Amino acid sequence: GVTPKSIMLRSTTFFAAAVAALTFASSSSAFAPSQAVGRTSFRASPAVYQQPKTASAARSSTSLSMGANIDLKGKVAFIAGVADSTGYGWAIARALADAGATVIVGTWPPVLKIFQMGLKKGQFDDDSTLSDGSKMEIAKVYPLDAVFDTPEDVPDEIKENKRYAGLDGYTISEVAKAVEADYGKIDILVHSLANGPEVTKPLLETSRKGYLAASSASAYSLVSLVQKFAPIMNEGGSVLSLTYIASEKVIPGYGGGMSSAKAQLESDTRTLAYEAGRKHGIRVNTISAGPLKSRAASAIGKEPGQKTFIEYAIDYSNANAPLGQDLYNDDVGNVGLFLCSPMARCVSGVTMYVDNGLHAMGMALDSESMKTE
């Protein structure tokens, strides 16, 4: 396939959670689309393996190509949490589209018009190129606020909010019904959203309201999506979400109950894998990605003249991960494609690390105490 022209985004994922979580942290209605600064390097479709012609080619080749082995033509994928072209949701959507899937997305109502305008103006074209040179098409964009399950859950303050003006049908149950009316059954459901209004606060200073808001937007939203979408998913379908290592290790600076929400998300992934697997015959997995410099994540702990939280996280990962290399959006997109494809038909209930191996480390290599005289 043709490798599209792209610009490398120096990254390692600070997951989609902190990502959008903060962009809209001030909103009482939090649907956080993942966002990232810059462009990503898209290696066509994921790759299984291409035999290099020479030994030197083997050493220099980093382009894998799995596209020919994964055919998702006729499959429909709903991605919840897409609002621009640089987040993980977009990268997963593009990888799925590259394999032939029909892609539809759910976007937070306050940014819906901006996103639709960007699509109309071709603002995301550079990030839409597929391995055959064509552009990814998003078949339909639905307004979705994942903190509301039914119309009755939406408070008047949201209904009357000018950012929601002219919109309705954006609760999870309503979107599921709309998708069913438009497409019948779907095959893939991706949860790429989170929000923590108090993410910059340590847990000791987090309010009950802030803590529960983080859980609602970042963890229960997955439970609700599976509840409402599983009945309209074909057997053998796949559910995928995004998590972060703060669920199991202490990451100072990732507060407001977000670490707790990620722990919930991973625990729920296992329980839902069992329940939805037995009841609906679908798989449920999550990807734990390393730090990615995004606009929203960059807002955490931003002080004049100082590095942001995410910049520290990226530098730490590059210094201490087993693989000292940059992480791209599409590294996560490619793993997402695998997990959503028939190649992973027996994989469910898994937290898949895409972080250059950082999760495996128990000691900081660049610690002052590790330095020799």
Explain the layout of strands and helices.
Layout: H1 15-23, H2 55-60, E1 76-80, H3 88-98, E2 102-107, H4 109-120, E3 138-143, H5 156-159, H6 172-183, E4 186-191, H7 208-229, E5 233-243, H8 258-280, E6 283-289, H9 309-320, H10 329-340, E7 351-354
Parallel strand pairs: 1-2, 1-4, 2-3, 4-5, 5-6, 6-7
Q: Any overview of this molecule?
A:
With 373 residues, this protein is an alpha/beta fold. Helices cover 33% and strands 12% of the residues. The protein is built from 10 helices and 7 strands. A 7-stranded parallel beta sheet has the order 3-2-1-4-5-6-7, with helices on both faces. Helix 3 links the parallel strand 1 and strand 2. The longest helix has 23 residues, at 258-280. The model is unreliable at 1-64 (pLDDT under 50).
Question: How many helical stretches?
Answer: 10
* Number of β-strand runs: 7
Side by side, the strands of the main sheet go: 3-2-1-4-5-6-7
Helix and strand composition category:
alpha/beta
